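Bumping with the actual sequence this time:
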Amino acid sequence: MTTRPFEVLPYPPWLEHWWVKAAARQLGRPDIAACLRELEREVQRLSDLFTVERSPGFSDYAQDERLLLAYGLFFFPQTFIRIQFPLIEAVAWRGWAPPSDRPMRVLDLGAGPGAAGLAVATLLEKVTESSAIEVTALDRAPTALGFFQAIVGDLSAYWPRTRWTFRVGDLRDPPTWGVPLDTPWDLIVVSFALGEAFYGQTDTRVYAWLRHVLRYLSPQGLLVITEPALRETSERLERLRDAVARAGWPFIWGPCLHHRPCPLLAEGCFWCHEVRRWTVPPSLADLNRRLYRMIQVLKFSFLTLSPQVPPALPAGPMWFRLIAPMAEMKGKFQTVGCASDGQKYTYEILRRHLDADGIARLRRIERGHILCVQDLQPVRASTWRIPNKAVS
C-alpha cells in the first residue's frame, strides 16, 4: 500500500507572536492571558458567523478591528495550514511545477488579513525554484488588507524572494481588480472567500464567475479554492466540479482523481471534505480553553483546477482518496474511497496478522489521504479487501 500524505509547514511561531503582540497593543493589555480572555466573545461571534449564523453580509466582520484580531489569533493559523494541503498535493504528487525562468505570479482573491497568501509564499519559497514570487492580494475590506500589509512590513525577512502588491477590490467583480488579462497568473487562490462573497447566489452565477477567473490563468496555472467543510459550501464545490467535468475544461486536479460525476453528490447523503491533524499553536489553545471548540483537527473542502491536463491514473479501484475516516471495527479496519474510475468503494483490512507497526500505520491515515493498493481482493459488490501484506 502506497500512501500519499503530505507534510505541511507548521504554523510559524513568529506569525503567532505577531498576532499576540498586535492584540496586546490594540487592546492595551500587556497581560497576554487577559488579552486572550477579552477576545473570547469575538471568537464565539466569528465561529457562529462562519457556521450557524451565515447570512447575506456576514463577511462584514472584516471591517471590525476587534473581530480581525480574534480572527488572527484563532482562525488565521487554521487557514494558514489548510491552504497548504491542496497546493502541496499539486506540487509533490500531481507534478505541477511553477515557472523557474521568470517570477512566479500569485493572485490571492479575498485575501483578508493574509493567512492564505502568507502560507502560499512561505511554502513556495521552500519547495520551488522560482527566481522570485510576486503576490498580489485583493480584498474589498481595507481594514483586513491593512493587517496583511502590516505583517509583511514587520516580517518581510521571512519572504526574501517575495514581492507584495495590495489592491482593494471585489473578488466578484473582476473589473475592480485592476489586473490585466494579458499578464496571466500562475496560481490563483480563493481561500474561504467564495461562500462569503456569493452567499445566497445561484450556482449559475458562481460558475460564470469561475469561467471568467480561469481566463486569468497561464496555460500551466492552478486555481485553488478552499471552503469550510459545511454541507452547504462543500456541495457547492461539488456542483461546480460537476459542471467543469461536463464542460470538459478546465481539468480537475483535486480532490478528484477522475473527471466523472461526483459519486457523493449523486447519492446526496454525504459530502466530500478533508479532516487533518495539526499542531495547535499555544495561544490558540489558550484562547480555546473556555470555548471548547474542536481544534485538534482541521476540516475543509477544496477544488483545484487547471487548463493543463493532470497526470493520468489507471482507472479502477486501486487508486483512491479516502472520503471517510479509517474506522476501527470488530476484526477489521474499514474506510470508503473515491477511486480513479469515479466510483465509490468500501475498503477493508482484516486485523489478524497485522503487527503493531501495521496497526499504527493505519491509524495515521486520515480522511483525504490518497492511497494506491496492489492486489485488491473482491469481497462483495463495491467492496474490496486490502491484503495484510500491503500494510506491513
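The C-alpha cells above came from a reply further down the thread. The CA atoms of residues 133 and 162 lie 5 Å apart.
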